Every structure is written in C-alpha cells, then in structure tokens.
Amino acid sequence: MVLFAGATEPNHYAVVMAQSAPAPDPVTPEELKARIEAGIPGAQAMVSGDGHHFDAVVVAPAFSGLSRIARHRLVYDVFGDELGGRIHALSIQTRED
Q1: Is residue 39 within 8 Å of 73, Cβ to Cβ?
Q2: Which of 3, 18, 78, 83 would disulfide-bridge 39, Cβ 3.0–4.6 Å?
Q3: CA 45 – CA 37 distance, rounded (Å)
Q4: Do 36 and 58 form a contact (C-beta atoms < 8 A)?
Q5: How far is CA 25 from CA 6, 21, 28, 76, 87, in A?
Q6: In a 3-state reduction of DSSP, which class is residue 38?
Q7: d(CA 24, CA 86)
Q8: Alpha carbon of 50 to those of 28, 29, 53, 79: distances in Å?
Q9: CA dist., res. 22 & res. 89, Å (int)
C-alpha cells in the first residue's frame, strides 16, 4: 500500500501545483549600457543584444594599466550574480580611454 502526501486513500494521488516565481524583467542593451557607465567611472559603453546574449564595447580611463582579464572583471563585477542568469551571456571588448 502506498500513500502520497495529500492522498486520502491507498493508490490515490494528490496533485500538487508548484507556483513558479514570476519571470524577471527582460534585459535591454540600454539597461546594460547605463549600468556599465554608472558602475565604472568615466566609462562609455556601446551594447547590443537580443535580451539574452549581449555584446559590449567599453572604453574607460579606469582600464589604464590593467590586463584584459582585470578589465573584464571590472565589467562583470557591475552585474554580479545576474551573469549566467538574468543576463545569459555577455561578450566584452575593452579599451583604455
């Protein structure tokens, strides 16, 4: 005899409906541009994308003397845990101002 949570009699199944969290607001290139420029002093960003995959070109005096990895880390740090989630993919090119 098998009883499942919510079942009232043997071999009767209770149906449990999971309520999912509401979908996050879609991401726009304009939002990413504004956040990069606000998060990195003096930065100018050009961002394109389809709401899931984005390409960004970022020029900033803050990149002076930094390696490519350090520059990219500065940009990625603007978004934190949203990368790989709300922002599925972000391709970055960086240049010193």
Answers
A1: no
A2: 78
A3: 6
A4: yes
A5: 35, 12, 9, 20, 11
A6: helix
A7: 7
A8: 8, 8, 6, 17
A9: 21
What pLDDT, in 10s, does the model give residues 61-72? 999 999 999 999
Count the alpha carbons within 13 Å of 97 in the hemisphere toward its beta carbon.
11
Residue ranges in 1-97 assigned as alpha helix (H): 29-39, 68-79
pLDDT digits (tens, 9 = 90+) for 2-50: 444 555 555 555 444 555 566 668 899 999 999 999 999 999 999 999 9
DSSP state of 48: E
Residue 31 φ/ψ region, left for φ over 0, alpha for ψ in the -120 to 50 degree band, beta for the rest: alpha
> Which whole-number Å values give the CA distances from 94 to 26, 28, 55, 90, in the listed order?
25, 20, 11, 13
| Partner residues linked to 48 by β-bridges | 55
Q: Which two three-digit tokens encode residue 71?
A: 């520059």
Going by the DSSP 8-state scheme, the letter that residue 82 receives in this structure is G
Which of 43, 74, 70 has the alpha carbon at shortest distance from 58?
Answer: 43
